[in-house]
Specification:
This protein is of the alpha/beta class. The protein has 12 helices and 11 strands. The strands form 2 sheets. It has a 7-stranded mixed beta sheet, with helices on both faces. Strands 2-3-1-4 form a 4-stranded antiparallel beta sheet. The longest helix is centred in the last third of the chain and has 15 residues.
Length: 287
């Protein structure tokens, strides 16, 4: 079938008062119908798909700081049963290990390794052990300081979680970060499942070691599949969100994969990329 032979829907959304920009870009698609989803989101229905049009829309949307998502049909949140999320730079705005390293004056060195790992240029397990080793001797109270002083939820996180819980979905936080933070977020946000790495602490000091199996891309995928199996659902009934290369495998088994403020390698492979709106942007995609 030629790519010009079928129609799709396009959801355009942004932050703040952006309806004029939304309508201007929507007009480029020659839709059969425009549905106003929210004050900052519209759905263009029945547009004739072509690669050239998609490129035009994506360039125009990016210039206007809008997110553009192509979808077949209209889907509902209730079609899904699980939302699985990465933690660092997805559910929360920071990379916890970088902020812990900052307490040692080592943030530049650790951040450089983190960035390379998230771009997929370094093996995640190796990169994590290298970064954690740099933290040897740090007082464990630094973790508490990072949680209270620096950790912030990503834009739209609480609204998204409230909506998915109201729709009966379960929640999984699966992270290459640390249990110190996932345990606190689980209690604070009422999450159902969490998995992360455990830092070894002896006599109140970080030893520079991680206990047990590293939560890498394979472990993340297995965890999503295991939780789905325990819930009696297919992974296609899961929405999986992430930002780095370590998230790609778990995103690949999901019914909807969401690249949130993500690295290019992740945006290219995800079914949805949210570059400007918050995590609650998925709600405008799932009417």
């Amino acid at each position: 079938m030629n790519t010009n032979d079928y129609t799709m829907n396009l959801v355009l959304q942004g932050l703040g008062p952006c309806m004029p920009a939304l309508e201007r870009i929507a007009a480029l698609t020659a839709p059969q119908r425009i549905v106003r989803i929210a004050d900052n989101a519209i759905r263009c229905e029945g547009i004739t798909y072509s690669v050239a049009l998609r490129h035009t829309i994506e360039v125009a949307a990016h210039a206007a700081q809008l997110d553009a998502t192509y979808m077949m049909g209209v889907h509902k949140l209730e079609e899904f049963r699980l939302v699985a999320m990465d933690m660092d730079s997805t559910l929360i705005t920071i990379e916890c290990i970088d902020e812990i390293a900052d307490m040692q004056g080592l943030k530049p060195q650790v951040s450089e390794i983190t960035e390379a790992a998230m771009r997929g240029e370094l093996d995640f397990s190796t990169s994590l052990r290298k970064r954690v080793a740099l933290l040897k001797g740090l007082d464990a109270t630094a973790l508490e300081r990072v949680y209270h002083e620096r950790l912030q939820l990503s834009l739209g996180a609480e609204a998204m979680l409230a909506a998915v819980k109201a729709a009966g979905l379960k929640t999984l936080l699966v992270s290459g970060g640390f249990t110190f933070f996932t345990a606190r977020l689980k209690e604070r946000l009422g999450l159902d499942f969490t998995l992360a790495n455990e830092l070894e602490i002896i006599d109140g000091k970080l030893t520079g070691e991680v206990l047990g199996e590293i939560v890498d891309a394979d472990v993340k995928q297995r965890t999503v599949e295991h939780v789905c199996a325990s819930l009696g659902i297919d992974p296609q009934q899961a929405i999986v969100m992430g930002d780095g290369a370590n998230d790609l495998k778990m995103m690949s088994v999901a019914g909807m994969s969401v690249a949130f403020r993500a690295k290019p390698v992740v945006r290219e492979q995800a079914s949805v990329a949210l570059n400007f709106v918050g995590l609650d942007g998925i709600l405008n995609l799932l009417g």
